[in-house]
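Sequence only, no structure available. Ideas?
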Amino acid sequence: MQVGLPYRISLDAINPYIPGKRLEEAVKELGIERVVKLASNENPLGCSPRVYEAVKKVLEAPSRYPDGNSTELRAELSRQTGLTPQQFVIGAGSFELISFVAETFIGPGDEAIMPVPSFSWYGTVTRLREGKVVPVGLTAEHGVNLKAILAAITERTRVIWLCNPNNPTGTLLPGEELAQFLEAVPRHIVVALDEAYCDFIGEPGYPDSLEWLYRFEHVVVLRTFSKIHGLASMRIGYAAASERTISYFNRVRQIFNVNALAQAAAVASLRDKDFRRRVFDNNRQGKEYLYGEFQRLGFSYIKSEASFVMVHVREDSDPLFQQLLREGVIIRPGTGFGMKEWLRVSVGTEEENRIFIEALERAAAGGLRLLRQAGSLSG
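Reply:
I predicted one. Tokens follow.
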């Protein structure tokens, strides 16, 4: 008689995270040489040239364990921000940093509030801790609804997850509105402010959230080196908070959680402001191009402060995703976000953006013809 393994019941409520289709996988499946991947919000300009030199030096001693405290990286972050090194913990990308928050503050039966749609990993780590996810819908303008989040707070609330700019919508919480919200949240509730895309914010005068740590001890700021720094494959990011909170994160952190290559790459990238400026400019110009083309094609879109844009394609985005894939363009359909008639496209290079628009125009035109033939559309 076969005896079932004692799997935790709470895992039944969790769906595995599904990343965007890998470039190599698409090339093999489609049998074509040119594939443009605009699905995972990766940096189309790569990473700083300084990274390669820094990594080469580390490879001279691969048999040594990495610095378990990421001392040099935390010192560089301290130098650039004015916070103390003890206010930073380094993690293997945003995924691990988000897990630190859940492991530190969420227990069985505790509640965590999150906007929907937003980054799905917030819900996953909450359920892993046997907590309850409290979803709050976005506003009519696709922004995070802070008033509704405040109204959802109960005596069981332990964490509020906020992604700013929000993924997948790219909408930004106004600085003053967010500061007022943080003031209103009870101090025993942690606000995890995930700022994976903060380096792309073009709104003038937007406040640096790290300065809020002096006012709000219940705030944790999460940032990554995967986006504007272009170090997605390295898996590295950081959390900033009070020294006391960071000390607890270090109690749940694995000893050698970030490898030496990633640490050296992050330090080198932090010291290359010119590269980040080039990435920012490419992203801004790319979004303006996409906005103009969407308007020309008659598609509405959500103005984004991140490195991607959500566009309303007026039909099921899954078949459109497949059509674009056959054309050698990988995007992210909105079905997984609960936005069936939308798709999310990462901003690429000038050529990649053009290739995407040309493929979208051909694919969408075919879809509209089918709708008209079925009598679903007039004109």
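Residues 368-379 have pLDDT under 50 and may be disordered.
Hope that gets you unstuck.
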